[in-house]
Fold this sequence. Notes:
Order of helices and strands: EEE
Helix content: under 10%
Largest sheet: 3 strands, antiparallel
Structural class: mainly beta
Number of strands: 3
Bound molecules: zinc ion
CATH class of the domain at 1-46: Mainly Beta
Shape: rod-shaped
Radius of gyration: 28 Å
Number of helices: 0
CATH topology of the domain at 1-46: Rubrerythrin, domain 2
Oligomer: single chain
Amino acid sequence: MPIYEYRCDACERKFEVLTSFAQRDRAQVCPECESSRTRVLVSSFASVGGESELSPLPMASSGGGCCGGACGCGSPN
Length: 77
Ligand SMILES: [Zn+2]
C-alpha cells in the first residue's frame, strides 16, 4: 500500500497517510487540528503516466510507397 502525502489547509501541516489508491483522493483528517480540509500532494513518483506513446511503426518491407512500381513513377515510359 502506498504512502501519500497530504497537506492540511487549516494548519498547513503536512502528513503522510498509508492508504490505497482508491482512497487517495479522499480527504484525510489532519492529525494536528483534526480538520478534514486536507488535500493530497501528488508526488512525482506517484503519478502514473500510462502506457508509452512510443510504438514502433510497422515498416513496409515491399517497395516504397509511390515508387513501388504500382504507379509507374519509377519506370520511364
Ligand atoms: Zn491541520
